[in-house]
Amino acid sequence: MSSVIPQGHVILGRIGAAHGLRGEVRIEVRTDDPSRLAAGAVVVTDDPLVGELTVVRLREASGRATIAFEQVTDRTDAEAMRGLLILGQEQQEEDAWYPQDLAGLAARGEDGRDLGTVLEVRAMPAHDVLVLREPSGARTLVPFVLAVVPVVDVAGGFVVLVPPGGLLADEPLEDEDDEADAADAISHHDEERDA
């Protein structure tokens, strides 16, 4: 079974085990917009031999989702589809982007300083992270949350980062700066007293 994701498509879900005798299958939903898998939706899979599928229904019960397609009517066909990715057309919105759009973007601080380049977006259990190559070459995982990445400008070719102290290898710890300032102040005070 070949695995091909056509240009202009995104992953909406992955088909799991057959459920029941009439072609229904379990599905791992991978879209933030489950309405894209609602009854009547037409999707494809990463196997071009399967062709288009029309969703009959998407149900969720006890934390598990199942889906039924018009073209899959028995358990044998359902079992043959296990592991396939369900794909839909990209839907570009004004403020939306896809993970692949972020690879190669420049990372800047709020003050405009160069913080590196985004290599990829990686899915993690708690939240996605940006894999950042800093100017020194260090690779750092940056939480892809609004507090740390408040601006994503794909058209402009950059993201803005507000990293907490110590997150980036090229940035000094906030405490280290404070300690250095305190040491300078003490040293200066001692010099004045000795004079």
Automatic annotation (TrEMBL):
Residues 186-195 have a biased composition (Basic and acidic residues). It is found in: Cytoplasm. One of its GO terms (cellular component) is ribosome. One of its GO terms (molecular function) is ribosome binding. It comes from the Bacteria. GO terms for biological process: ribosomal small subunit biogenesis; rRNA processing. Belongs to the RimM family. Binds ribosomal protein uS19. This is Ribosome maturation factor RimM. The lineage of its organism: Bacteria, Bacillati, Actinomycetota, Actinomycetes, Micrococcales. The gene is rimM.
